[in-house]
Amino acid sequence: MPRRSYDQYCAVARALDAVGERWSLLIVRELLGGPRRYTDLHADLPGVSTDILATRLKQLEGEGLVERRRLERPANATVYELTPRGAELRPVVEALAHWGGPDLGEPRPTDAVREHWYTTTA
Amino acid sequence: MPRRSYDQYCAVARALDAVGERWSLLIVRELLGGPRRYTDLHADLPGVSTDILATRLKQLEGEGLVERRRLERPANATVYELTPRGAELRPVVEALAHWGGPDLGEPRPTDAVREHWYTTTA
DNA sequence: GTAGTGACTTGGAAAGTCCAACCTATTGGC
DNA sequence: GCCAATAGGTTGGACTTTCCAAGTCACTAC
Question: Which residues does the UniProt record annotate as the domain HTH hxlR-type (chains A, B) (predicted)?
Fold first, then answer.
């Protein structure tokens, strides 16, 4: 179990308690684009290990931010998708994307690419 | 040194690389209220250990988000304050505060207290 | 000179993360 | 039925980060 728990009486701290761990917000960002399978999440998040991905998905599910849904035939797969509460994190991800976007990168993207980022990550 | 570094080409990942570590955003939240001394930060962030606080402040300083400034007499203290770039994190902290605020807490605050949170954390 | 801040540093234990390998089911040929 | 592939994980061990308590060093007040 994650030993986090900063300070229960601060709104920011409570938010970080829920999604402040490594990879959590990046998983949310992926899911903001729609439901995804475990394997696809693993492929789209370079560097995340399978155990951490499984752990984070369970945590997010336990917090009511993500739901596990099994697709029937012919797809026959398990997908993860955001709950309404999880989707409310969109402004947080957008704010981070905006802050980390244009002014930080070394390999400066073109305006076209940057536009792509904003529309896909936000 | 922190071995983070998710994926350099994603804006959200780059943002989290800078401020995604434990306590970083809470320190920023404190400094959004104005310059603070080390000891006051330590007192206002219940649970942070002194070594982590010192480490995070150096990291944030190294990233150009926080500046260390020595006050002369009679105060004769060292204060930390946000750079303009660091202050640009305000929307991120606001989004987190808004998300973590009204709908999550168990010891539901009164509206007056909640108002206090928004104005002081945002 | 001794007591008390302020601003850290250090050492060791605990917790979290990474990596590679393994496991169980289901599907799809042949 | 048999073999390989894919999906969705679990497990063990090394490595890294965080926690906690204690100690350091500079300065001021008395």
Answer: 10-108
